[in-house]
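Need tokens for this chain, all 146 residues.
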Amino acid sequence: MCFIGGRQKPGGLKMKFEDDHESGQVRATVTVPDGFQGYPGVVHGGIVAAILDETAGRAILLDGSFDDLMATLRLTIRYRRPTPTGIPLTAVGWLKRRGGLGARVAGELRLPDGTVTADCECTLAEVPEEFRLNWEEEREHWRVDP
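Here are the structure tokens for all 146 residues:
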């Protein structure tokens, strides 16, 4: 039921994440409809942030499993230029560092020509067990496809 990656979520973006082991990145393509604009023809900044948060966060799953899933503690976004609605965008995420109880990940949102419209860095942390128990029924949907 995730707004970004939930493939059966009504009204969601239904992003499908794929891994690229060669580059050490996760990727997804998304076309954001006008209904998610902030200004005419421009994706709302909160939607851009949500896409980047989800994409960067999924990078922790690239060489791991569902049990490696973490939650965002800090998200820093840099908006470089307006992100247009109605065109295919590529979201890319990668792991920068992992250690202790957390990780540092990063991501970018790119136009078809490769121009970066926004980028992010995230600090992730392990989630307390009482929250993880609630995730079990959606476990099969949290994946990065090969």
